[in-house]
Amino acid sequence: MRAMLELKNVSHVYVSAQEASLAVEGLDLQVTPGEFVSLVGPSGCGKTTILSLLAGLLVPSRGQVLIGGEPVHGPSPRVGYMLQQDYLLPWRTIRGNVLLGPELAGRQSRETEEAVERLLHEMGLSGSAARYPHELSGGMRQRAALVRTLITDPEVLLLDEPFSALDMHIKLQLEDLVHHTLRRMRKTALLVTHDLAEAAAMSDRVVLLGSRPGRIRHIFDIPAELRALPPMQARREPGFQDIFEAIWAELEEGEEGGDA
Ligand code: ADP
Ligand code: MG
């Protein structure tokens, strides 16, 4: 099957007036359509850099970045981005924030409005559509940010620690909701997280990166019986602990190597 996301021998160097620093080196990765893949690794190993390359916000110093088999030449409506901070506009209602993308794209139709209402309903936000961001909890704001990302119907979702600022119990609920929604819509997703359990519970595969420079150290296939379950349920399976510990052990080993 053709890859939806592909990195071919990608390296990236950040250049400033003072210095050049190699952030990631020799990355090769293919993500198939509909797959959910997580990126984990120590802080500074290049996770956000990889998402920025895929989003077309950075041009790789070497190698090729492809979406749907085509080279990335800048930001594209095929790719949606969701961050830890929701960046909702404070002066617009939740509905107004969600409608911003379609408005900017000149796609204000009856169908779009109906799609907005449907998605808001599915995310449990119907009752909050006329409220302003500051009136909502963190979890509700992230759900609103997800609706805003999904309404433009991207094929790929890049998620940079979207749950990390939330309370544990809200975070677990949102993991289930995002997992379920992206599967149902057959989106391809790349999630950055520092939470290994979250990565193991949500993903088909987990990519572990090492640092200085960022390189792929290991790719873990999550067992099929865990992949078939919603994240919250997967966490309770006996096999979950095994895969969690395997990722943990590999991460620990890399950290020791890095400091030596
Ligand atoms: P992560 O998201 O895994 O924490 P990043 O992709 O943000 O890592 O950063 C990878 C490396 O690149 C780090 O060493 C970081 O300091 C460096 N870096 C990130 N952004 C820039 C930038 N705009 N200019 C220079 N160096 C950067
Ligand atoms: Mg980051």
UniProtKB/TrEMBL annotation:
<dbReference type="GO" id="GO:0016887">
    <property type="term" value="F:ATP hydrolysis activity"/>
</dbReference>
<feature type="domain" description="ABC transporter">
    <location>
        <begin position="5"/>
        <end position="236"/>
    </location>
</feature>
<dbReference type="InterPro" id="IPR017871">
    <property type="entry name" value="ABC_transporter-like_CS"/>
</dbReference>
<dbReference type="Pfam" id="PF00005">
    <property type="entry name" value="ABC_tran"/>
</dbReference>
<dbReference type="InterPro" id="IPR003593">
    <property type="entry name" value="AAA+_ATPase"/>
</dbReference>
<keyword id="KW-0813">Transport</keyword>
<protein>
    <submittedName>
        <fullName>ABC transporter ATP-binding protein</fullName>
    </submittedName>
</protein>
<keyword id="KW-0067">ATP-binding</keyword>
<dbReference type="InterPro" id="IPR050166">
    <property type="entry name" value="ABC_transporter_ATP-bind"/>
</dbReference>
<dbReference type="GO" id="GO:0005524">
    <property type="term" value="F:ATP binding"/>
</dbReference>
<keyword id="KW-0547">Nucleotide-binding</keyword>
<dbReference type="InterPro" id="IPR027417">
    <property type="entry name" value="P-loop_NTPase"/>
</dbReference>
<dbReference type="InterPro" id="IPR003439">
    <property type="entry name" value="ABC_transporter-like_ATP-bd"/>
</dbReference>
